[in-house]
Amino acid sequence: MKIIDLYKPNKTVISFEIFPPKKDGDIDTVYRTMSELKVLAPDFISVTFGAGGKTRGSSVTTEIVRQIQDKHGVPSLAHLTCCGSENISEIVLELKLKGIENILALRGDEVASGGFQYAKDLIAAISGRGFCIGAAAYPEGHIACDDLEKDIVHLKQKQDAGAEFFITQLFFDNALFYNFLEKARAAGIKAPISAGLMPILSKAQIARMIFMCGASLPSPIIKLINRYGDEGESLVKAGIEYSLNQMQNLCDNGVEGIHIYTMNKPFIAEYCVKNLRVKRV
User: Fold this and answer.
1) 101 is known as an active-site residue
2) Can you state the angle between helices 54-70 and 88-97, rounded to 10 degrees?
3) Is 137 a residue whose pLDDT tops 80?
C-alpha cells in the first residue's frame, strides 16, 4: 500500500521509526521489536538506512521493510540516502523485486562522491518509477541552513521533484511546528506533513540530538532535565509523558500525522498510542 493513501481528512496517521542492527547477529532483536510494534496497529513503519556500508546498508533496510509488510501486513517505508546513490539503479531494482512501494528520500549525514548532493536530486531520480516518495522537513530549519525561509524553499523543491508527503525532524516545542506549518502552506506546500517526535530518555540523548540536528530546548524540557538529571526510570517516564502531551496537543489541532522515533524500544510507542486520544479511521 502506498503511504500517501493513508492520509485522509479527519484522520491522524500514526507511524513508527525503527533502525537496523549494527551487527548481523542482532537482527533477531529487530524482528522482536517489529512483532511488538505490530500489535499497536501503526499505519506504517519506517526503517532507517542500515549500517555497514552503502551496499549492505541498503540490503539490510530492504529486507527488514519486506518483513514488516509481507510477514506483519503493515505498510513500510524504506529510507534511502544520497550516500551510495551512484548505485541508484541497483538499489531501485532490489526494492522493486522485494515489492517495496514506499521510499523516504534523504540527504543523509554523509554524501559520497559520485552520488547526489541533495535530497531533491535523489527524489527527482526515483520519481516516476512507481514509488510513493516521502522526504524530511525541518520545523526549525536544517542544521546546515541558517534561514527558515530558505529552508521552506528547499522543501518546496522536494515537493516539486516528486515528494508526496513529509516527516519532520524531532522537535520539543509545538509552537515551532505550527509556525513552520503556516509558512510551508503559504509557500504552496500541499503534501501531508507528519510531526516527528522522540521522547527524552537521557541527558546524553538530548546532547546528541542537539548536536546532530540543532533542536532547541524549551524551558519545560530544561526544567524536566534539571529535576530528574540522570535518574533513569524517573526521567524516562517524565520524558515519555512530555512527548505524549506534545502529541495530544498536535492531534487536538488537526495534525495530519504523528511519527514516533521509537529508538527500537516498543514500550515508548505502546505508552503513547494507548494513551493518545486520536481519530484513526
Assistant:
1) no
2) 20
3) yes
